[in-house]
Write a structure and sequence with these properties.
This protein is 37% helix and 17% strand. The protein has 15 helices and 15 strands. The strands form three sheets. The chain has a seven-stranded mixed beta sheet, covered by helices on one side. A six-stranded mixed beta sheet has the order 3-2-1-13-14-15. The protein has a two-stranded antiparallel ribbon with strand order 4-5. α3 crosses α9 (328-335) and α11 crosses α12. The model is unreliable at 1-20 (pLDDT under 50).
């Protein structure tokens, strides 16, 4: 009884500490946050592990949806152990917006809140009014309940909405004063009102017309208080790849980045792409806002980030960010899991991702190149994906790929009817590691 009372009290204190009803905001101080994106959580009621769902995973885009529940549990257990000041989730919380998936995930997040770590969420393009919401039971895919904006907010009321210091009336955007030096802006950029049965969800994102007025008003207050703004959204603020812009970058990204920069913003978090990548927006006057597009938690190596913000209370701060993999094997050992894949889950997940992320094109490649060359092409593509999504496709790694015997097949494949633009663009854009960032205070 005493343990249950202590847990309940901790939950109330965690919520009360960030409740927006005239509370006393703590003074400026360093803040450490955990950040993740694109969980694509699949609730137990949605699939039965049968042949149908197995095929969905194998023919998908490489997300480890068949193990997303243990991946999520391992990640959240690490968050509770690390005790950051808050956890930020930047959308696509569910596979395809299934109400059952949202409810199950929210229950897990409530446990994190009860453990003393406030959680802040926002919707992604898969999460609300998604007409693709389905169950995969037996051999049949069947439509299931999705959530409306009102239901999303109710389900995740303990994950930011009830704690907001300010709410936007035009969207589910909200602002929370983490302390006197850091204000968090959770921006809902989803046009879910456009979704309909023949157009189940919208990929691109946009700031709602009414949101601009609210956002600038709050940013002015932030600057007047000597605080720095930290923004989070689902779609990207900066260009992370010349190939992936339309539908990935916010349609009004330049306007938003300029507004953030005008009020001292230096960093934003996004997701949506699924690869781990860091890029910056550059203004005409030399302004710069960094955008960390978090890798999908559902994709090997199941990355999440930790950012430490050190504000001075006078509108300046230094920022340090580091992404790290989720150790599912350690969690499995600690919780007595018996599935043999947990013995080295990282190796298992890496191999599965290399295979599953290339399976969509397997038949087409075999027809164009023949079985042997198609296998070589898929090996290169699999390795490119493994490195790119982990934020580890450096220039050196790219050169190593080009020196491999299989690369000759890639160079010849274009003349044999294969679209090689994805591999070539990703490899040619390779730079340094995408897993760390330091930002000095703005001048």
């Amino acid at each position: 009884m005493k343990k249950r009372f202590a847990a309940a009290l901790a939950a109330l204190l965690a919520l009360g500490a960030l409740a927006g009803c005239g509370r006393k905001v703590p003074p400026a101080a360093p803040v450490t946050l955990a950040v993740a994106s694109d969980l694509h959580y699949v609730g137990e009621a949605i699939e039965d592990g049968g042949e149908l769902f197995t095929r969905v995973v194998k023919e998908g885009d490489g997300r480890q949806l068949d193990y997303i529940r243990p991946i999520t549990d391992a990640f959240l257990a690490q968050v509770v152990q690390d005790k950051p000041d808050a956890l930020i989730l930047t959308g696509d919380l569910s596979f395809n917006g299934e109400k059952a998936s949202h409810e199950e995930l929210a229950a897990k997040l409530d446990q994190v809140v009860q453990a003393g770590v406030p959680v802040f969420v926002l919707p992604g393009n898969h999460d609300v009014n998604n007409y693709a919401a389905s169950t995969y039971l037996g051999g049949e895919r069947a439509s299931t309940d999705f959530v409306t904006p009102e239901e999303f907010e109710e389900i995740y009321k303990n994950c930011g909405f009830a704690a907001a210091d300010s709410r936007d009336s035009a969207s589910m955007s909200y602002m929370v004063k983490l302390n006197g030096g850091v204000w968090l802006f959770m921006l809902d950029t989803q046009p879910y009102y456009l979704n309909e049965p023949g157009f189940p969800y919208t990929v691109g994102g946009v700031v709602q017309d009414g949101t601009w007025t609210w956002l600038e008003k709050q940013l002015k207050k932030c600057a007047a208080a000597g605080a720095v703004p930290l923004a989070a959204m689902h779609q990207n603020l900066a260009v992370h790849s010349q190939r992936f812009t339309t539908g990935y970058r916010l349609y009004d990204a330049d306007r938003l980045a300029q507004l953030l920069a005008d009020y001292g913003g230096q960093l934003a978090f996004s997701g949506h792409l699924h690869p781990q990548h860091i890029a910056s927006w550059q203004g005409e006057g030399g302004e710069q806002v960094w955008d960390v597009a978090s890798g999908s938690l559902a994709v090997w190596p199941y990355l999440s980030g930790r950012v430490t913000i050190d504000p001075d209370g006078a509108g300046h701060a230094s920022w340090d960010y580091e992404a790290a993999p989720t150790d599912v094997t350690a969690w499995a050992a600690a919780t007595g899991q018996t599935d043999p894949v947990f013995a080295d889950f990282s190796a298992f997940g890496r191999a599965q991702f290399a295979i599953n992320s290339t399976s969509r094109s397997a038949d087409r490649l075999a027809e164009a190149l023949g079985e042997e060359d198609a296998a070589a092409y898929r090996r290169v593509m699999g390795e490119v994906n493994v490195l790119y999504f982990a934020g580890a496709l450096t220039r050196q790694a790219a050169e190593t790929l080009k020196a491999s015997p299989d690369w000759a097949v890639v160079e010849q494949a274009g003349s044999r009817g294969v679209d090689t633009s994805y591999i070539l663009s990703v490899v040619n854009e390779a730079e340094g590691s995408q897993c760390s960032l330091h930002i000095d205070p703005a001048a």
